């Protein structure tokens, strides 16, 4: 784990919480984006908790540069598996959208309950994605027209969606509506393991890094629409 926040007290609090868990360990702390890039160049971390508003280099730019490193890393290497969860005290659409566009796999508010934060870290580490429930649907509904405009310029996304099987498309739509794997399994009367298999195939066909990216593609291509 890496913690990036310009407030020492915040980092200390998160560090104590995370290190209290037997399966989690903080290996890097940094006070801004530039420090984070330097520290993560020397030490490996699976998940980064990244503040948004910081002096020098903010969390959005740091996330973007970290994701460039991830894209350039050899497949299967530790660096290629790095994931970022962006944390902020501001429940504002533009921060969430900027974080997603920069490549974050999660977006959470700093006042989230401790168990929610810990669950988010584990979820992102598994390769899934997390966005604050209060933000998810409002954000995507708000930016859907822009995403669809961008999607019209990316025919590869439409082609990828067209390659999904009928069942994969069903799962894809439910994913885009914010349903969890257990909820999808219950709705389709299949096992959770079957849903996980479908999700893996969907991400591979779409060339999507995680569920957040897949949901953005669903809005881009019009598979789901605001309020739909």
String of helices and strands: EHEHEHEHEHEHHHHHH
Count of alpha/pi helices: 11
Low-confidence sequence ranges: none
The domain tally reads 2
Structural class of the secondary structure composition? alpha/beta
Residue-averaged pLDDT = 85
Domain Response regulatory: 1-125
GO molecular function: DNA binding
GO biological process, one term: regulation of DNA-templated transcription
InterPro entries: CheY-like_superfamily (IPR011006), NreC/VraR/RcsB-like_REC (IPR058245), Sig_transdc_resp-reg_C-effctor (IPR016032), Sig_transdc_resp-reg_receiver (IPR001789), Tscrpt_reg_LuxR_C (IPR000792), WalR-like (IPR039420)
Description of the structure:
The protein has 228 residues and is α/β, with parallel strands linked by helices. The chain folds into 2 domains: 2-131, Response regulator (Rossmann fold), CATH 3.40.50; 152-221, Winged helix-like DNA-binding domain superfamily/Winged helix DNA-binding domain (Arc Repressor Mutant, subunit A, Orthogonal Bundle). It has 11 helices and 6 strands. The chain has helices spanning 8-19, 33-42, 59-72, 93-102, 114-125, 133-152, 155-162, 166-176, 181-188, 192-206, 211-220; strands spanning 2-4, 28-30, 47-51, 83-88, 106-109, 130-131. The protein has a 6-stranded parallel sheet with strand order 2-1-3-4-5-6, with helices on both faces. Helix 4 crosses helix 6 (133-152) and helix 8 crosses helix 11. The chain is globular and about 50 Å long.
Please name the defining characteristics of this protein.
Arc Repressor Mutant, subunit A; transcription; transcription regulation; 228 residues; 6-stranded parallel β-sheet; globular; 6 strands; 11 helices; Rossmann fold; DNA binding; alpha/beta; 57% helix; single chain; 2 domains
């Amino acid at each position: 784990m890496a913690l990036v926040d310009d407030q020492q007290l915040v980092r200390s609090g998160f560090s104590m919480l995370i290190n209290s868990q037997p399966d989690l360990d903080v290996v890097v702390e940094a006070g801004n984006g530039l420090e984070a890039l330097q520290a993560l160049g020397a030490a490996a971390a699976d998940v980064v908790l990244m503040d948004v508003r910081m002096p020098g280099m903010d969390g959005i730019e740091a996330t973007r540069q970290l994701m460039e490193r991830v894209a350039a890393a050899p497949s299967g290497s530790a660096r290629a598996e790095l994931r970022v969860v962006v944390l902020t005290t501001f429940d504002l659409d533009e921060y969430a959208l900027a974080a997603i566009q920069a490549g974050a796999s999660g977006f959470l508010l700093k006042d989230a309950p401790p168990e929610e934060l810990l669950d988010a870290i584990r979820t992102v580490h598994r390769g899934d994605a997390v966005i604050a429930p209060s933000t998810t649907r409002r954000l995507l509904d708000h930016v859907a027209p822009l995403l669809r405009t961008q999607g019209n310029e990316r025919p590869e996304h439409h082609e990828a969606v067209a390659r999904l099987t009928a069942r994969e498309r069903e799962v894809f739509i439910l994913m885009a509506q914010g349903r969890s794997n257990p909820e999808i399994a219950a709705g389709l009367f299949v096992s959770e393991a079957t849903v996980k298999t479908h999700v893996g195939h969907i991400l591979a066909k779409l060339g999507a890094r995680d569920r957040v990216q897949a949901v953005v593609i669903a809005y881009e291509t019009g598979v789901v629409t605001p309020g739909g």
